């Protein structure tokens, strides 16, 4: 049962010839006012009847034929097969297809004629939205019951997201571009790509990116602090994940830009490309790139309102409204809002979030679409710690700390205030080529008042501990510009594809410096760690100066997909990058210092090959190089040299039921130098964790994944991953990151009279890990967490979903890197959603 307002069925579109291919101080009101003014201006220009070119569109569709062999059956399944055969997107309100049967269609027919036959007797009609998109609606009463196709109303131009997951009800997607910026199906992409769809996120109640990544195959989250702190890390293939993108635009590597606490209300899906992604990121880790794709306006009116209530006083409200703003549909808009307030299983910890998102999309001409939008998110955690608790007593015995223990002072907090204004302009040329210009301005502020009680050594009587006090506060700005073109070309009588572009960003972090860790005259001590409730004097923290970091990256990149035969494709690409970073420090009464780093002419090659063994199975291989300046520092405070190396991957992929179910198996090898590994028990001069550079590090392993619809009403997503990281001497590294993980979530909509009920379950298993040596070695055994969910469709428009997480109340540690931190105990979440 699908709760969203529309359902989207797509085929393997990349194969179809028809496929087309200042912070809180500034505030969000000026941005919204700007959108309102833009809407007013555009409304006058676009409200007039459009020269839609409907006749030419009809001719174009009639000008080609497609072989159809679609059996009669339930309409949603029939439309899925139709989308696969034609490459067209079919959108429709969920309720109009429930319980409706189609007579099917066979023979070589134009897509338009085939759709007429599929809809015969269903009481539905279809309208072309653009050359690739069709919407369905109920047959008007005056039509006399005849099933007709009405192509004269063209509601939009070239807008649309070919990989859109919203409304599909699926745990997979038909196309992804996060690996190469070419619109390819998962099977055609020569790298491992996991897609967390809108339906999957809704079913599991995944409202934050950290929760999404925690459920993604091959990715592990070492939770070790409150929301907004830097106490947690995400790993893939043995390495930390630092590459975040939004709509394919890379975020700066400067602290505070990584979007690692984003709320999911504004996003359609999350695409995680495992392995090195230097082609599109330039400076990239060999772990993974996380691309969050925003929701876009829809050509039909849709919306929902949802309320959630859960354990630990969790309350959340979310609303989403989207649709055309003019009669001809040439101006569309969408607005999303969310608010969340919750306590935690950790004593005293309280969190709040505010989210607001708006976007306008206009068909300036038949071939040109302009979008402008604003995204605002504010997150705050009070009584918050960026760490857990000691794993050992002074005498070497292990501690036994309560899961609910909070090591944060009662005045400590973390706040992030993010405002993003973005715009893109797309133009489709008559020869199938598309040009896109993206511009984005990101303003942020983070403010953290630190006070967490893991200083010293814990005696058996609770003495010996104190807090680490301090403050982090900075304003951040990032301006990004990207321009690219893509389209087909003919060579040696065959059709190929090309993508080329230029882009870059300028990012700046500037803020006052405050005392950290060591404050003259301040008493850090905690009388008794076991009974401490966070009550300790708040230190006086006056600015000691100011600092600024400037980072720039510019690049030119290109990739081509060559098709020497129908079954064989080569993807070749490269990127030339220029990167620089200046760190300025201005202490009060002292001499200013500047540290400069830069890399010019960095060449990043990319190569991939895919061979279709059958219509279902393909084999692939890919290679890319690794280059990543890093901000890890050693015990002397010196920044480690950039990462460099090579990444190799090979595997097999399968596409079942016309792309409704995707499966993959991959093996990988990553070789790199200067890998930053935590140096246990050692710290930088400013009190941060010290790292050491490891030469000759090698990561290898394999991954298995399946995602999509196994049979009607049965969705599944998950897999198994194994990773081993060793140094040049063959010694295992990153022992605090699990080598083996299983993640599997599935839902099933019951048949017949019980079809209003959907049931589901989730299993997440992580293997054993350890950290430290000798008497101070801490071992954590493997653990498994089981979750359950059920949804009841109360009416056609209202549904209720219940998630029961950690069913057996498994007690486990999510991190043992420096200190211990527990995972969530058993908890429940009840969601009530109304759609229209």
UniProtKB/TrEMBL annotation:
Sequence segments annotated as region (Disordered): 157-193
Keywords per UniProt: Cell outer membrane, Ion transport, Iron, Iron transport, Membrane, Receptor, TonB box, Transmembrane, Transmembrane beta strand, Transport
Residue stretches making up the Secretin/TonB short N-terminal domain: 88-139
Membrane topology: Multi-pass membrane protein
Listed Polar residues bias regions: 181-193
Pfam families (UniProt xref): Plug (PF07715), STN (PF07660), TonB_dep_Rec_b-barrel (PF00593)
SMART domains: STN
Bias (Low complexity) ranges: 165-180
SUPFAM superfamilies assigned: Porins (SSF56935)
Lipoprotein keyword on record: no
DNA repair found in the keyword field: no
Main location: membrane
Subcellular location: Cell outer membrane
Domain of life: Bacteria
Family: Belongs to the TonB-dependent receptor family.
Protein name per UniProt: TonB-dependent siderophore receptor
Organism: Azospirillum isscasi
Organism taxonomic ancestry: Bacteria, Pseudomonadati, Pseudomonadota, Alphaproteobacteria, Rhodospirillales
């Amino acid at each position: 049962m699908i709760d969203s307002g529309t359902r989207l069925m797509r085929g393997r579109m990349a194969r179809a010839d028809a496929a087309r291919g200042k912070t809180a101080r500034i505030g969000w009101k000026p941005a919204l006012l700007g959108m309102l003014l833009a809407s007013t201006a555009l409304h006058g220009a676009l409200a007039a009847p459009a020269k839609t070119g409907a006749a030419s569109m009809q001719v174009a569709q009639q000008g080609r034929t497609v072989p159809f062999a679609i059996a009669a059956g339930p309409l949603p399944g029939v439309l899925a097969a139709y989308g696969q055969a034609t490459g067209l997107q079919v959108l429709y309100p969920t309720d109009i297809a429930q319980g409706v049967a189609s007579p099917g269609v066979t023979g070589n027919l134009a897509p338009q004629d085939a759709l007429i036959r599929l809809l015969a007797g269903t009481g539905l009609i279809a309208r072309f939205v653009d050359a690739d998109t069709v919407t369905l609606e109920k047959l008007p009463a005056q039509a006399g019951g005849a099933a007709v196709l009405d192509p004269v109303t063209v509601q939009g131009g070239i807008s649309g997201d070919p990989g859109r997951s919203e409304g599909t009800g699926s745990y997979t997607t038909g196309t992804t571009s996060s690996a190469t910026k070419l619109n390819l199906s998962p099977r055609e992409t020569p790298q491992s790509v996991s897609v967390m769809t809108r339906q999957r996120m809704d079913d599991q109640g995944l409202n934050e990116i950290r929760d999404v990544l925690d459920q993604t195959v091959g990715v592990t989250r070492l939770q070790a602090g409150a929301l907004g702190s830097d106490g947690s890390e995400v790993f893939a293939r043995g390495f930390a994940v630092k590459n975040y993108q939004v709509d394919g635009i890379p975020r700066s590597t400067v602290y505070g830009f990584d979007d690692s606490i984003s709320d999911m209300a504004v996003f359609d899906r999350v695409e995680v490309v495992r392995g090195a992604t230097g082609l599109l990121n330039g400076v990239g880790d060999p772990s993974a790139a996380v691309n969050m794709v925003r929701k876009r306006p829809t050509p039909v009116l849709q919306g929902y309102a949802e309320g959630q209530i859960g354990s630990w006083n969790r309350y959340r409200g979310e609303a989403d409204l989207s649709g055309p703003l003019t009669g001809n549909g040439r101006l569309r808009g969408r607005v999303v809002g969310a608010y969340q307030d919750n306590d935690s299983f950790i004593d005293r910890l309280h969190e709040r979030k505010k989210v607001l998102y708006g976007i306008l999309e206009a068909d300036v001409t038949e071939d040109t679409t302009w979008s402008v939008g604003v995204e605002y998110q504010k997150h705050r955690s009070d009584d918050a710690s960026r760490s857990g608790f000691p794993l050992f007593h002074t005498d070497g015995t292990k501690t036994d700390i309560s899961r609910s223990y909070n090591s944060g002072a009662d005045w400590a907090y973390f706040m992030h205030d993010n405002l993003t204004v973005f715009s893109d302009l797309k133009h489709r040329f008559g020869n199938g080529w598309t040009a896109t210009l993206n511009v984005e301005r990101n303003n942020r502020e983070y403010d953290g008042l630190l006070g967490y009680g893991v200083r010293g050594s814990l005696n058996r009587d609770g003495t010996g501990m104190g807090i680490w006090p301090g403050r982090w506060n900075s304003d951040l700005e990032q301006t990004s510009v990207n321009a690219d073109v893509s389209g087909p070309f003919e060579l040696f009588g065959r059709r190929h594809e090309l993508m080329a572009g230029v882009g870059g960003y300028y990012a700046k972090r500037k803020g006052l410096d405050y005392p950290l860790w060591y404050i003259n005259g301040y008493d850090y001590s905690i009388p008794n760690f076991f009974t401490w409730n966070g009550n300790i004097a708040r230190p006086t923290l006056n600015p000691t100066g100011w600092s600024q970091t400037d980072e720039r990256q510019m690049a030119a990149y290109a990739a081509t997909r060559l098709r020497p035969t129908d079954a064989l494709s080569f993807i070749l690409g490269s990127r030339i990058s220029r990167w620089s970073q200046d760190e300025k420090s201005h202490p009060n009464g002292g001499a200013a210092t500047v540290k400069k780093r830069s890399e010019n002419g960095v060449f990043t090659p990319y190569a991939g090959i895919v061979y279709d063994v059958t219509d279902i199975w393909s084999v692939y291989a890919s290679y890319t190089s690794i280059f990543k300046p890093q901000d890890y520092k050693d015990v002397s405070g010196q920044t480690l040299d950039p990462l460099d190396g090579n990444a190799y991957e090979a595997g097999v992929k399968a596409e079942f039921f016309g792309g409704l179910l995707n499966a993959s198996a991959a093996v990988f090898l990553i070789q790199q130098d200067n890998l930053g590994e935590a140096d246990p028990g050692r710290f930088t001069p400013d009190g941060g964790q010290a790292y050491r550079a490891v030469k000759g590090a090698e990561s290898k392993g394999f991954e298995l994944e399946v995602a999509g619809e196994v049979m009607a009403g049965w969705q599944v997503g998950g897999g198994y991953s194994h990773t081993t990281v060793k140094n040049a001497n063959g010694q295992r590294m990153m022992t605090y990151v699990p080598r083996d993980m299983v993640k599997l979530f599935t839902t099933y909509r019951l048949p017949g009279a019980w079809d209003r009920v959907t049931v589901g379950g989730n299993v997440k298993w992580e293997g054993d890990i350890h950290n430290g040596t000798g008497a101070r070695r801490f071992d954590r055994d493997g653990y498994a967490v089981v979750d359950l969910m059920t949804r009841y469709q109360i009416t056609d428009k209202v549904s209720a979903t219940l998630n029961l997480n950690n069913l057996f109340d498994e007690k486990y540690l999510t991190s043992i890197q420096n200190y211990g931190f527990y995972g969530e105990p058993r908890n429940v979440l009840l969601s009530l959603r109304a759609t229209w």
